[in-house]
Specification:
This protein is about 65% helix and about 0% strand. The protein has about 140 residues and is an all-alpha fold. The two termini are about 30 Å apart.
Length: about 140
Amino acid sequence: MNKSIRALFLAAAVCLPASAAFAADASAPAASAAPADSATLASVLKLTSAQQQKIKTIRDAEQKQIAAVDTSKIEPGVIQGMIKSGKWDEAQAKQRIRAVGEVDNQVTYIRAKALFDIGQVLTAEQKQHFQSLFAKELAAD
């Protein structure tokens, strides 16, 4: 059950979709957020193979860090159990929500740091182009 919770959080933590679009595989289609329909972000930004390798390393480390986030404090089925039983436990509900928030904050931090690290790999021109491509996502900060 712990793995399904982790998978849920990984899927829900798409708060920075731009970092996912940085897949280093230049043959993969771009994320739907990117304006270029069939081009990859690597080709749109004209990333060198060295940049792509550095970004792949960052993304691999990001995924490992996210997979290592401790979700053990998230007790599955707490809210659902209260709804089924008809008995609300305020303390237990708040603890569950707090635990979910902690995991979400950790994943958000990891993704934001990876996005920052990826930005350090880009040239000034690539950064400017990236910021224009993902203005909406970056404005959510």
